[in-house]
Every structure is written in structure tokens, then in C-alpha cells.
Amino acid sequence: MRHQIVSDDLRAPEMAEAVEKCVHCGFCLAACPTYNLLGEEMDSPRGRIYLMKNVLEENLPAAEAQPYIDRCLGCMACVPACPSGVEYGDLLVGYRALQEKQRQRPPLDALARKLICETLPYPRRFRLAALSGKLGKALLPVLPDAFASMLSLLPDKLPPARPLPAVLPAQGERRGKVALLLGCVQQVLAPEISHAAAQVLARNGVEVHMPRQQGCCGSILLHVGEEEQARDIARRNFGCIPADVDAIITTAAGCGSGMKDYELLFKGQADAARAAAFSHRVIDFSAYLARLGLRETTAGFSSQRRVVYQDACHLLHAQSHQSEPRALLNGIANLRLVEIADAGMCCGSAGTYNIDQPEIAAELSRRKVASILAAEPDLVVSGNIGCITQLRQEFARQNLTLPVAHIAEVLLQAAPA
User: To 10 degrees, the CA torsion angle through 29, 31, 49, 232?
Assistant: First the structure.
């Protein structure tokens, strides 16, 4: 029997389905980072489902459940662990969007959130804010937690902006035609990732389109419940991405996962069909390239290197891409891939989580780094800018010089001259 969720939201059926599928078996507990860290039932997926169910059925005040829901990373590790097929993400994203419309935040919290939503998705604004924020680092000891968390994540020096051409032609016989999403935060913090991805694709016979009009995909806003703003900026990409591309390539796991959820995000909207068609073409860089096959034999490294591939949650759990990036790395000469303990546990980045929940994020980051160090790698590779930033920050905090790179950068570095 369908649970009586009291909501006129068009996604209520999907939310109710997620609730009723949960049989509270507990298989999700071992996979959940916050349950492993905090040991509290309400900080587990089944506990949060129980809380959200009771709030949506108007049996529990939202304020009582909110701290536990806020502590959820949204990492989706519980989804593949669930034997009942609970689509936890459909419930969590819909719930957060509903509650955000009603929630009354403290003034400083509301201001910090406003700054996040009005800067991170817009590269030019974010660059200006980051440059300004560096001046505020001297005030970290006296700033409110939310502002201190934001400023502490900024690098001491931003890389220069590196505009890309609108089109990068395929080298040799054309094997594909794609659009490359450049992202928002990544354009500011690590523009070299998109450059590497575009060059690797072109070297492998792929024509790469990078429309200058493109913007944020909206995923970072969707993660925090700002669905109307997420829809508005996502629509910008619908009109500028060529309709005849084979695929829309993402180099950030969170972007890919969020864009694959457009069908539900745009449910009932006038452009629902367009959003669904768009999302069905979205694929991660490593998955696309692994399926296409590397055309050129990689030159590899001059000496043996031990490499840890760090699984981004929204690539591993939400998109089920575990083997593809490893297959690409295993094809590089003199690269030895080594696995780590608890590889599926989140590093604590998770969109804006390291800003909203800095203490939990920091502990998850410390645990992840401890697992990585135990493998004694020479290099850490990931497929997500959030993970890369989080790991680099933790390595710096521990005075370690272990490099962290995106898989596109490693493939480019290992390519023949």
C-alpha cells in the first residue's frame, strides 16, 4: 500500500516508492560513512528513511529530523548495498527540496548558504570570490564556522584561467563527436582537467565541442535542495549543447550523477522531454573512453609507479563505474594499480558537505588518507574535482607531498609525444 506522503510535489510517488521498498534489513549500515563514524541509528540510511517518512506523513516535526538529514553525505553508498532496490537518492533529493522551501535558517547560516548558491555555480563570480576570500584567511580564527569552512578550502594560489576553443577537431579518422561539460568550480580550481580531457579525446579520434555559452549543470544546487535555481541554470545547457553529439562528457562525478537525474528533476515541467533526452546522453569521461577504446598505445611512465585510484562516490555508487577507470589505468606501462581498504567510503567532500559539516568531513578525509597512505602510492588518481580538492587539502594539512591528479591528466601524461 502506498504511503500517504502529504505533498503536492510531482515526485511524491517516487519518494513514496522509496519509503515503502525499505524493509529495514540493515544491509545499508555497513556501507554508510556517517553510521560507521557516529554509530547512531538515525544517522544511517534506514534511520533517515524512517525520519523522512514520518515528516512527510506529518507524524514528526521537520526540525527534529533535520540534523540527521543534514548529516547525510548523499554519497549513495547505500543504494548498491540495498537488496530491496530502494532508490534512496530519489527520496533524499526530493525531501531536501521540499524542506528547503519551508526551512527557517539562522541569519549567518542563511547568508553563508546564499553565498554558496550565488558563487559556486558561476565560474566568474567564484573566481572573484576566491580571490577576495584569500584576504579573509587571516580572519579564520574569529569567523563563524560556515564562513571559516568556505575560506579554508580555498587554495593559496588560483591557477590562471585557461579558455578552451569552441571545437577541438579529432586527430586522424573521426571516431566520435561529443560535447564536453567544463563545469563551474573545476574551471576555477583546476582548469587543466578539462584541457587534458579534451586533448585525450581528440588524440583518440573524437571531435570535442565546448560551447562557450554552457554553464553549471545544477548538481551542486540540487545537492542542497535548491531545485528551482538548479533547473534554471541547467536549461542554459539544453540550448547550447549540439543536438547531434554522440555523448555529453563529464569529468566530475557529481555533475554526471546529477545530470542523469534530470528526468526526475524536470518531471512535470514543459521541457521534461528535452531534459530526459539530454540526460540519457550523459556519460563520464572514463566510461566513454573505456568503451570507445584507446586508439593509441600509451607511452607510459619511464619508471615503475604505484598508483591508488580513489573512487568518487557518485562515479562508483551512483553511476556504477568501477572497472572503466581501472581498465584505462591498467593499460599504462609502468603503472601498478594498488587497491585500498574501504575504497567505497566517502572522502568527505560530497558537494558542499565539507562546508556544511566540516568536522565530519575532516574525519572522513583523515580516514581516507590513512587508507591511501597504507598502500604506499607514488600518485593518487581520481575522477572528481571535489575529491581531488579534499585529498590535496588533507595531504597539505599533514605536510605530505603526495600528488593527486585527475585520470584525464594521467592519460595525457602517459600518451606518446
Answer: 170
